[in-house]
Structure formats: structure tokens, C-alpha cells
Design brief:
12-stranded mixed sheet, alpha+beta
């Protein structure tokens, strides 16, 4: 009896140690299957570790933990429109529900279920963004056509004999050295994603981000499992994300009467993507791109002050609001992968946020061009 129990306990380790059959799928075919895998259902347990070295920003403590620590999640994925992800910690739980196009957020600590309404042109990162399937598809969808892809040796991950894919960006200015993805070669479902920054390339164990399934079942969860069913004691509320339209025109309240974004910043062209929301601009191509976001009044000032309090580097740009010798025009947060620059400029001294997996020099050059463009517009001389 004891020997039989020991054998059963050792069985998972024995299976994991067995050789992984080599898949004959090519790199382009694997990439295509991964991108087409959004409809593949699954449920499981994933762990994501991120080492960005971000400062602990006031009022953004949860984001700092998400992008600088380990996140454990249980996930039930029925379809792209119906899924649930539970972020579990030692002190509580935060759940995200996608319920037919409506997002719900539940927090254990506050016992509150929040319905999020309105478009989401930009938002703070959520734990579900780090799950291997969503993260892998987003990275491959963003990558440029000229980026190099190649196959990696297969691995057994969470019981899946997964085929490996490596993507190496070719565009200058990006901080990404490589993206490595392992996925089920039959369905394309990603099971592990690893990102290495150029500052850490070649150093074993120095991945900036590693997201992997520890347990995985490729079965479709019941629709009831991904639908919120709040108990009578749970509080209910609704929140609407701020509209960032019109800030570049000096309105700051969503009344944008045209596209005010310059056609080029820092030598990179404005990219008009089909799903790009109004009020947000994307510049560059592939992984060497950045986002420009005019922050609504109040939000921008709070974000700028929070970064200053957290010890972010000061940046002086000629022509920026109050940019006298020794004055502060903006702040820069630099990490091995992500750069963030906030600059106060233009009409009403609005705050503009630049961010992307690009070097700080790229963002500083772009911000300088934006300041010049704003100061030359007639309405900014009123």
C-alpha cells in the first residue's frame, strides 16, 4: 500500500521528466496559430513574475506590485467575451470578469463589485493582462513584419507538449531583446511567455517578465463559472473611465473637433491603427513604438506629483511649461523594459504621458518635438 502511494505521488514528476516529442511545425505556422487562438477555451492556474524595478508610486501601489513581483491567478476562459481571472494573494483576492462585453471588478477587501462602463482607450494594467494567452497574442500582434522569428526547442509545460517560438525585434529604439513563447502546436494556445530586455540579454535567469501556466485544462468552463453572482452582502457600484479626448486642443473634457496629434514625433510617424481610440496616439512600428496620452485635468497633475515624490528623474525640455534653467518640465521613469515620461506643456499646462518599450532617449526626443508643436499652435498663444 505504501509503495503504491509513493508511486502515485511520484508519477507527475516522472511524466514531466519524459522526453518531449519534437513538433515539426514551422515558426510562421506556429505564430499564425497563436494569433488565431483567441477562441480556444481553457481553465487553469498561472504564475507571472515581473522585474521592472518601478518606484512604489503613491496611489498606484497595486500597479507597482503587479509590475514588480509575482502574481498568482486562477482563470476560467469560456470565450473572448466570457472569462474570469482571480488574482489571489496572501491577504485577499481581486477578480476580473468579462461578461459579454461588460467588465466587472470584484475586490475581496472592500467586498465591492464594480461595473466598468465606457470605452477603455487606456487603463491601468490588470493581472489578467499577464496571462500567457492574452500576453502572447498581444506581443505577436504588435511585432513588426521585419522582426525575426525562429523555433525554439519544445518543452512540457503544465502537461502540454509545447512548441517554442522566439521573436527578436529588428527596429532600433526598443528595449526588448527577445520574446519567447511556448504554445500547444495543435491549437496555438500559449502556455508560457518570457521577455528579455536588452539591458539583461545574455544573462541567464534575468528575464524581465516570465508568465507560465502551472496547471492547465484545455476544457471549456461552464458559462455560469465566468458570470458574476454577487451575494446580497456584496456592494455594487458603477464607474466610468475618463474620456481623454480633446486635451491636445486645450479642452480637456472630451470635445475634440479634429485630430490634433502631430504626424511625426522623435522621428517616428503617427500610426493610425483601426482600433486606436480617439484621444490616444501611437507612434512608431513593431515593438519599437510608444503611446502618447494627454491626461485629463487633475489626473495628470496627480500622476506627475506622484512620480516626483517617488524619486523619478527630472527632465528639462526647451519650451516646456515653466522650463527655465533649473526648473522641472517633466519626469522620467526608466526600467529594463518600460520607459515612462510625463511632461507639462501647452495650453492650460496640460500633462502628456509618453510610454512604451523604448529607450528614454526616444521619449525625450518625442516630447521635445511635441512641446515645439504645441508652442507653435495659434490657440496656445491666447
Amino acid at each position: 500500500m505504501a509503495s503504491g502511494t509513493a508511486l502515485l505521488c511520484a508519477l507527475p514528476a516522472v511524466i514531466a521528466a519524459l522526453p518531449v516529442p519534437s513538433s515539426a511545425i514551422s515558426a510562421p505556422a506556429l505564430r499564425a496559430r497563436i494569433l488565431a487562438s483567441a477562441g480556444v477555451p481553457y481553465q487553469g492556474y498561472a504564475e507571472s513574475t515581473v522585474n521592472l524595478g518601478l518606484p512604489d508610486l503613491p496611489d498606484l501601489h497595486n500597479v507597482s506590485l503587479l509590475l514588480d513581483g509575482t502574481t498568482d491567478q486562477y482563470v476560467w476562459y469560456h470565450s473572448p467575451a466570457y472569462w474570469r481571472a482571480d488574482d489571489v494573494t496572501g491577504t485577499g483576492e481581486s477578480d476580473t470578469y468579462a461578461d459579454g462585453g461588460v467588465t466587472y471588478l470584484w475586490n475581496y477587501g472592500t467586498n465591492l463589485l464594480t461595473q466598468v462602463t465606457g470605452a477603455e482607450p487606456v487603463r491601468l494594467p490588470r493581472a489578467a493582462d499577464l496571462l500567457p494567452p492574452a500576453l502572447a497574442r498581444r506581443l505577436l500582434d504588435t511585432a513588426g513584419r521585419a522582426d525575426r522569428i525562429s523555433r525554439l526547442p519544445d518543452r512540457r509545460i503544465a502537461g502540454v507538449d509545447a512548441a517554442g517560438l522566439r521573436l527578436v525585434p529588428t527596429g532600433p529604439g526598443t528595449t526588448v531583446a527577445s520574446v519567447e513563447i511556448w504554445a500547444d502546436p495543435a491549437s496555438g494556445l500559449p502556455v508560457q511567455v518570457q521577455i528579455t530586455g536588452r539591458g539583461t540579454a545574455g544573462k541567464p535567469g534575468q528575464a524581465v517578465l516570465l508568465s507560465t501556466f502551472l496547471e492547465l485544462s484545455r476544457t471549456q468552463p461552464d458559462l455560469n463559472a465566468v458570470t458574476p453572482h454577487p451575494a446580497p452582502s456584496v456592494g455594487l457600484t458603477t464607474t466610468r473611465l475618463p474620456n481623454v479626448d480633446g486635451v491636445l486642443n486645450g479642452d480637456g473634457d472630451g470635445d475634440n473637433d479634429g485630430d490634433p496629434f502631430p504626424p511625426q514625433l522623435g522621428g517616428l510617424r503617427h500610426v493610425a491603427l483601426p482600433d486606436s481610440p480617439p484621444g490616444v496616439a501611437i507612434y512608431g512600428s513593431g515593438l519599437a513604438r510608444f503611446v502618447l496620452l494627454p491626461l485629463p485635468r487633475g489626473v495628470g497633475t496627480d500622476a506627475l506629483n506622484s512620480a516626483i515624490q517617488a524619486g523619478a528623474d527630472s527632465v528639462a525640455l526647451p519650451g516646456a511649461a515653466g522650463a527655465q534653467p533649473g526648473s522641472l518640465a517633466g519626469v522620467l521613469i526608466r526600467t529594463p523594459l518600460l520607459s515612462v515620461l510625463m511632461v507639462r506643456a501647452g495650453f492650460h499646462h496640460a500633462v502628456f504621458l509618453f510610454t512604451g518599450a523604448v529607450t528614454p532617449a526616444v521619449l525625450e526626443s518625442a516630447a521635445g518635438d511635441l512641446v515645439t508643436d504645441l508652442t507653435q499652435r495659434p490657440r496656445f498663444h491666447r
